[in-house]
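Weekly modeling sync, notes
Attendees: S.R. (lead), two postdocs, one rotation student

Agenda item 3: backlog of single-chain predictions. S.R. asked that every request posted to the team notebook include the full sequence so nobody has to chase files. The rotation student volunteered to paste the first one in as an example of the format we agreed on. Action items at the bottom.

Example entry:
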Amino acid sequence: MLQNADDSKYDTSATPSVKLILTENSLTFETNEIGFTKADVEALCAIGHSSKAGQSDTIGEKGIGFKSVFSVADVVTIRSRAYSFNLDTRPPFGNLGMVLPLWLEEHDEFSGTSVTLQLKNTVDLSKLRTQLLIFDFSFLLFSRKIEITQLHIAIRATSARRGRARPVVRSVKEVMH
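Predicted structure, as returned to the notebook:
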């Protein structure tokens, strides 16, 4: 998800940023990118097709990286500009649900892009929370665009952690609520 955010296009007046929000049953990634095009939606819903293929300024281009979210999520909700849909692998769709967008009829146009993973019951929330809290945001130095990352954990012991990942991590602050 971070790679996809780094590969996205941003308005020149915006500071490229990512916010991760963990709740009791979901993990949401929000970016302030300019949003999906029709080609982006088609590529995301395909296998082996990428809207990034042949672009030297992107990391991903195989058309399969996004599908890895289904190892931890049954349903993924995507809101980006005028596009709002679910990818749902629960019965009756199964694996077909990874490529079959179920359009959401009622939605507000989202500024940027929001991807919410509805976590599987098998995901160890405590372990995920710990992994996010100890994640070394300096790892994001590979990022060519993302300058700000934020982590908000809204479960039991609520906390927030913020870091600036470019050109170096300037500050990391954890606040317990």
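Discussion: group reviewed the output briefly. The first helix runs from residue 2 to 7.
Action items: rotation student to repeat for the remaining queue; S.R. to check formatting next week.
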